[in-house]
Design brief:
Blueprint lengths: L2 H5 L2 H10 L1 H15 L7 H13 L4 H17 L5 H18 L18 E6 L6 H14 L4 E5 L5 H14 L3 E2 L7 H14 L4 E5 L7 H15 L9 E7 L4 H13 L4 E5 L9 H9 L3 E5 L7 E3 L2 H9 L6
Parallel strand pairs: 1-4, 1-5, 2-3, 2-4, 5-6, 6-7
Antiparallel strand pairs: 7-8
C-alpha cells in the first residue's frame, strides 16, 4: 500500500465524498448537460465548461489554466465519453495543483518535536468558523497523542472567549484567558509561558476577527508575534488563515487582505459540506501559492480533514458511476 493510501482511510474518503456532494452534483450535472449530443470536445463545450467552473467559484485565472490544459490534452488524445473527460479533469487539475507544491505532508495531526511548544496562531474574520476550527484542531491533535493548550487572544468579544471555553472543554484541553478587553499579546504571552512550564506540545492562539483596519490588524498581530517570541523564539511556527468556503469569491478577497496584512503560511477552508462552491478550494490553492492545510466538511470534530489534492479532486470529478 502506497503512502497516499496510508494517509487516506476509507472512512476519511467517505466523509470527503459526502462533504463535497453538493459541489460535485452541481458541477457534474452541468458538465453532463453541456456534453449532451456531443462526441467530441469543441469550442462551444469549452466555453460552457469555463462558465461552469467560474460559477463554482474556481476563479477566472485558475479556470483559464484548466481550460488551456484540457485543450492541449484534447489535441493529442481522442475524446471518448463523459467518464473519460472526468478522468482527464482529475488528472489535469491535480497536476496543476501539484505544480504549486502546496499539499501538506501532515499525517495524523502530528508536529515536529523540538523540546519547545509548537505554536499555531489562527486568524480570520468573525463567522468563518475560526473558533470551531481551533476546537477541532485541538481535539484531533490531542487524539493523536499530543498535549495541547489554547489561548483566548480574541479579547474583544465575550462570545469568542466563551465559545473557545466550550470547545476547550469538549476537546479536553485547557484554555488560558483574561478579562474582556485585555491585551491580546498578554494572553498569548501567558499561554506560551504556561505551555513551556507544563511541557505542552502544541499551543493554538485565537485572535480577533477584524479586517476593517488592516494596519490595526497588522500591528496587533505583529505585537502578538513579538511578545510570543520572548518565550518561544521562533513562534508562531504556523499562521493559519481560516476562510468560509461557502462565501465563494468573498473568501478570495479575505485571503488577499489577510495575506497583505500578516505572514499567513497556511489555510483552512471551512463549511464545504453546505455549499456548491467547493471549487473555491482549487482556485485559492492555485492562486495564492499558500498551502491549503485543512478543509472543514461538517459539524463533527472528525469532519476537519488534512487537505490532500488528489483525493479532493477525485471526490469532485470521479466517474459518474461512483456518485
Amino acid at each position: 500500500m502506497g503512502l497516499f493510501n496510508r494517509l487516506f482511510s476509507r472512512e476519511k474518503k467517505e466523509t470527503l465524498d459526502k462533504g463535497l456532494e453538493k459541489t460535485k452534483t452541481g458541477v457534474l450535472d452541468k458538465i453532463t448537460r453541456a456534453l449532451a449530443g456531443k462526441n467530441t470536445i469543441d469550442d462551444d463545450f469549452l466555453d460552457n465548461l469555463e462558465e461552469i467552473f467560474i460559477t463554482s467559484d474556481v476563479g477566472v485565472e485558475t479556470t483559464l489554466k484548466i481550460i488551456d490544459r484540457l485543450q492541449k490534452r484534447v489535441s493529442k488524445d481522442k475524446y471518448m465519453n463523459s467518464s473519460e473527460l472526468n478522468k482527464w479533469l482529475c488528472e489535469e487539475i491535480t497536476a496543476l495543483l501539484a505544480e504549486n507544491e502546496n499539499e501538506s505532508e501532515l499525517e495524523d495531526f502530528t508536529v515536529p518535536k523540538t523540546g519547545l511548544p509548537h505554536v499555531i496562531m489562527v486568524v480570520g474574520v468573525n463567522g468563518v468558523g475560526k473558533t470551531t476550527t481551533i476546537g477541532k484542531l485541538a481535539a484531533q491533535f490531542k487524539n493523536a497523542g499530543n498535549s495541547v493548550i489554547l489561548g483566548a487572544a480574541d479579547t474583544f468579544r465575550a462570545a469568542a472567549v466563551e465559545q473557545l471555553d466550550v470547545w476547550g472543554e469538549r476537546a479536553g484541553v485547557p484554555v488560558i484567558k483574561q478579562k474582556l478587553g485585555a491585551d491580546p499579546a498578554s494572553v498569548a504571552f501567558d499561554t506560551l509561558q504556561s505551555a513551556v512550564a507544563n511541557n505542552i506540545d502544541i499551543v493554538i492562539i485565537d485572535t480577533a476577527g477584524r479586517l476593517h483596519n488592516k494596519k490595526g490588524l497588522m500591528d496587533e498581530l505583529t505585537k502578538i508575534r513579538r511578545v510570543m517570541q520572548k518565550v518561544v523564539p521562533d513562534a508562531p511556527h504556523e499562521v493559519l488563515l481560516v476562510l468560509d468556503g461557502s462565501t465563494g469569491q468573498n473568501a478570495f478577497e479575505q485571503a488577499r487582505q489577510f495575506v497583505a496584512a500578516t505572514q499567513v503560511n497556511e489555510l483552512a477552508i471551512t463549511k464545504l459540506d453546505g455549499t456548491a462552491k467547493g471549487g473555491v478550494v482549487i482556485g485559492i490553492s492555485d492562486q495564492f501559492k499558500i498551502p491549503v492545510k485543512y478543509i472543514g466538511l461538517g459539524e463533527g470534530i472528525n469532519d476537519l480533514q488534512v487537505f490532500h489534492k488528489k483525493e479532493f479532486v477525485d471526490s469532485l470529478f470521479g466517474s459518474e458511476n461512483q456518485r
